[in-house]
Amino acid sequence: MRELKGFKDVILGSQKIIMKLPNNITPDEIAKTRDRFPHAFSRRLHYRILIIFGWGPFAALVIYTLVDFGFTFERIYYGLGKLGHVISFMFPPFLYEDLAGWTEILHAIAETVAMAFMGTLMASFASLFLGFLGAKNIMHYWPFHYIQVLISISINGLFVQ
After folding, report:
1. For the chain, what is the domain count?
2. In Å, what is the CA distance from 8 to each residue of 22, 42, 124?
3. Which of 25, 50, 102, 112 is spaced 20 to 30 Å from 31 by Cα?
C-alpha cells in the first residue's frame, strides 16, 4: 500500500481508518476524546431502537404485501409486455383506424394551450391594474384604495377555503 502524504492510519475501536490529521493531533488524543464524548462517535440506544421500531414494521408490511400479491420478477417481466396495451387506452380509439385523427387531436391540444395562454395574459393585465389601484403611493384618493383592498381580501377569502 502506498503512503499518502499528510495521511495517517488511525485505529478507532476495531476499525482502521486512513485520515488526514493535523500534525499536532495524535491517535491517543483521538482515543481520549472518543472516551470523553462517546455519543459523538456513535448513535444513542434510543435512536437505534427508534430506527428498528420505525423501519421494522414498514419492512414487514412491504414483505407481507409482496408475498400476499405473489410478487415475482417473472410476473413483472410479463407485465411489462402489456404496458403498450395499457398506454393505448390513454388515446381515443379512432386513432388506430387512420392517422387523420391525429390532426383533430393536435388541433384540440393547440386550442387548449392557446386558451391557457390567453387566460394567463388577461389575468396578468388585470393584476397589474389592480396592483396599481391598491398601491397607496400611486392611488392617492383613499376610497379607491380601500375598495380595491376590500375586493382583494374578498377574492382571497373565496379561494383559501
Report:
1. 3
2. 10, 22, 63
3. 50
Statement to judge: residues 106 and 153 lie in one domain: yes
Could you tell me the residue range of the domain that residue 9 belongs to? 1-42
Q: Which residues pair with 11 in a beta bridge?
A: 16
Tell me the whole-structure pTM to 2 decimals: 0.36
3-state secondary structure of 131: helix
Conformational region of residue 71, where left means phi above 0, alpha means psi within -120 to 50, and beta covers everything else: beta
Look at the alpha carbons of 93, 94, 95, 97 in this order and tell me if their dihedral is positive or negative.
Answer: positive
Residues in CB range of 127: below 8 A, 6 or more apart: none
Tell me: the pLDDT tens digits for 91-111? 766 555 666 767 777 888 999
